[in-house]
Amino acid sequence: MTQPRAKIIGTGMYVPDLVVTNDDLAKRMDTTDEWIRQRTGIEERRYIEPGQQPSDLASAATKQALEAAQLGPEDIDCIVLTTLSSQADFPGTSFFLQDQLGLSDTPCFDVRAQCSGFLFGLAVANGFIRSGMYRRVLVVGCEVHSTGIDISDAGRDVAVIFGDGAGAVLLEATEDENDDSGLLEIRLHAQGKFAKKLWIEAPGSGFTPARMSHQLIDERRHFPYMEGRFVFKHAVKRMPEVLLETLNAASLKLEDVDLFLFHQANLRINEFVMEQMGIPTERCSNNIQRYGNCSSASIPILLDEAARTGRLAPGQIVSMTSFGSGFSWASAVLRW
Ligand code: COA
């Protein structure tokens, strides 16, 4: 019997309406539009407004993916949600999403692999489908950074980078031997040795007697900490490595790839990687200029934009590569 393969049958995305420009941030901290554009390529990002929840973003992205696939929530066998900015400490955002979709007992859970989360989630979904456990799996990357960053002079190096958003893909099993579209290969890597180079320490269950305290807040340990240059250096090394490893596993060459999607952490990182690998700009898509770094939502948002704008034609090869906190890095290649 042929082993099922996972195929993307619908994509969706959602970003909040509130646009926050670099000039808006410059009113709240010591920064400039010029500094942010030059170092990161970012022009603006989106923030949620009072009353909006992460699951609202995830739900809107999911509905688009379902519409594209002409299916309803009840057709989903399992929900995998990836996030580093969970709606509650527990349960995961996926549970709020499941409820919002009107589902009563569809299994759902969160995957935590930070900016590589979407590709880790995709690997989990791919495993479910290939093993025959589920036929339709929803993978949603959903992040709300705006409520967790330090929008002041002290946090300016990290705060300017991040934005809120969600992206979703619906995967379906196929055994059709005449259809060679679908996920071809995925490779995942992690290096916990560098966990503290980019992290949020608190609340943390190792703090005694309480995981959160006024002291931790006063010490600003609930805000992200990042060694930017160290992260940059590792990102430009690891992304090419894992991209080539994945293409190699799929017996493909760089020239075979029609569209490269890189995690949107910093436009300069992606430009450096593309130049290093000899990838022409027209074979790559970036949207960090408009949305900032949406962590695990960045790649599915890019994929949805490519699908909706007609950038992708059936049979084309798409490569997706990420690097982020953990450190974690991953790559996937698919035939559209
Ligand atoms: N506005 C203005 N100045 C800023 C600033 C801001 N928002 N943030 C930092 N600076 C200042 C610093 O204080 C420093 O000033 P100094 O020279 O007087 O000390 C100067 O700019 C350079 O800071 P540095 O942190 O060395 O800048 P950088 O060139 O490394 O750029 C990043 C900072 C964050 C843009 C860059 O390191 C980066 O993108 N790293 C990778 C981050 C990443 O990918 N994270 C997510 C992974 S998922």
Describe the structure in your own words:
With 336 residues, the protein is of the alpha/beta class. The chain has 2 domains: 5-174, Peroxisomal Thiolase, Chain A, domain 1, CATH 3.40.47.10; 182-335, Peroxisomal Thiolase, Chain A, domain 1 (3-Layer(aba) Sandwich), CATH 3.40.47. It is built from 11 helices and 14 strands. The protein has helices spanning 22-26, 33-40, 54-69, 93-100, 117-131, 156-159, 214-218, 228-249, 267-277, 288-291, 298-308, and strands at residues 5-14, 18-21, 44-47, 78-82, 108-111, 136-143, 165-174, 182-190, 198-199, 225-226, 259-262, 284-285, 317-324, 328-335. The strands form 4 sheets. It has a 5-stranded mixed β-sheet, sandwiched between helices. A 5-stranded mixed β-sheet has the order 8-14-13-11-12, with helices on both faces. Helix 3 packs across helix 4 (93-100). The longest helix has 22 residues, at 228-249. The two termini are 24 Å apart. The mean pLDDT is 97. Bound molecules: coenzyme A. Coenzyme A binds next to helix 2, helix 6 and helix 8.
Strand order of the largest sheet: 1-7-6-4-5
Mean pLDDT over the residues: 97
The CATH top-level class label of the largest domain: Alpha Beta
Q: Between the first and last Cα atoms, what is the distance in angstroms?
A: 24 Å
Annotated CATH architecture of the largest domain: 3-Layer(aba) Sandwich
- Please state roughly what percent of the residues sit in beta strands, choosing from under 5%, 5-15%, 15-25%, 25-35%, 35-45% or over 45%: 15-25%
Give the name of the CATH superfamily of the largest domain: Thiolase/Chalcone synthase
- Portion of residues within helices: 25-40%
Number of domains: 2
> What is the overall number of helices?
11
* Largest sheet entry: 5 strands, mixed
**pLDDT < 50 runs, ≥5 residues:** none
Number of DSSP strand runs = 14
Secondary-structure element order, as H and E? Answer: EEHHEHEHEHEHEEEHEHEHEHHEE
Q: Which compounds are bound in this model?
A: coenzyme A
Q: The CATH topology of the largest domain is what?
A: Peroxisomal Thiolase, Chain A, domain 1
| Gyration radius from CA atoms, angstroms | 19 Å
The rough form would be described as: globular
